[in-house]
Amino acid sequence: MRPDALVTDALDEPAIGAVPAKTVYIETFGCQMNINDTEVVLARLSEAGWTRVDSIDAAGLVLYNTCSVRDNAEAKVRGRLGALKPMKRARPSLRIGIMGCMAQREKDALLKNYPHVDLVVGTDQFVHMPQLLERLDETGRVAATDFGDFEDRAWDAVREPGANAYVPVMRGCNYNCTYCIVPTTRGREKSRKPELVEEEVRRLIDQGFVQVTLVGQTVDAYGKTLGDGSTLAKLLRRLHEVPGLKRLRFITSHPKDITDELLDTMAELPRVAKHLHVPAQCGSDRILRLMGRRYTRDDYLRFVERARARMPDVELLSDFIVGFPRESDDDFAQTVSLMEQVRFGGAYVFMYSPRPGTPSSHLPDDVPHEVKNARCTHLLSLQVKHQAEFNSAQHGRIHQVLVEGPSKSDEAMLHGRSLGNLNIVFPRSGSDGADRDHLVGSIAPIRIDRSTGLTLFGDLLT
Ligand code: SF4
Q1: Is 217 in the pocket of ligand 1 (CB under 6 A)?
Q2: FRET pair for 207, CA 20 to 30 Å: which of 102, 143, 265, 307?
């Protein structure tokens, strides 16, 4: 069942006071993995007879699916919890739960500081949400934060309708980058069996999805923990054969796990997107060492060469952290030069802030905020310049675009993604006025004729 089918006023449910008991309001913070975890929770709750509602006033249970990667996401959740206190006093039957990374990281502190919170559920235990809620009825308060494995169908999710579905294939991370809270909040790496991934992909195609994006913290490490020779390259080959699947993508990769086997497979399989999100984080070996990234600048540049030798049009996307402890002007200049050398198709730039419980939080946060800010602005404007130049070079080119639906900023346009994941927009009706909505979910040839910094515009090749 899809989430829209879960949003009702749930009049048939037995009521506690004026609010039906088995109604849930859920708010999600953070990354794609969290969005997917929410979809999994909704699937399990739906099977157990729960209904999703879109306001707290109509909910018997309020759930926050939390993120710990940056402080502001945690601060928002603390604010939400504080605001619920009077509501819980007025309506004691209201149950309040926290799940996700913050629940995993701060279980004891949350229980102590927020006595009105009933349920704290970690990053693996949420698949048992209905059972935990039954336990809550018996015991009054429940905390469940043990790490588990990928098991059977419990990880299937409900999804918003659309062209693309995200499918988690691995969870956790075995790297210990010194700034990152993920190994603490999501535990050790574990992969989902390929046959279970394939079953889910087949079901998604039956439901009308045409593109699948495989998701994992270090998705290119897929298979290592299965001990049966599984690799991401083999999984791509297997899924590529599923009838009806038009495009296959994966995010996010660690530079150390990008094998030649994976690059060869990407280059060979026509329905695999020529797109790699591989965070470089920084261009200075000294800082990469302090970050615990386990590769050098040269290793990264060699990866870029290996990828482009096989796929000249591959789109590379990176993340950067500026202002890591001890980052000097010279270190930053090396990040700038890495960006100049590679010319990424896209880049996310973050200012470093220490996260409690990570190794780097013990280093002095010694780059002043204004310097971090200036470095952040510098990298972003460089990226905008590179992207504008790249986009201008696309004018006249034809891209095979998987059409996703109407453009969010202009109803008169359709938008979609190229094989390299470029965002491409074109008119929703032809010059003869004919509607083109039937193209949603299919691949259409679009000739690019103009561009802005982030978007390419074109028209359908007829
Ligand atoms: S690879 Fe590093 S940054 Fe990425 S999730 Fe693992 S520890 Fe965090």
Answers
A1: yes
A2: 265
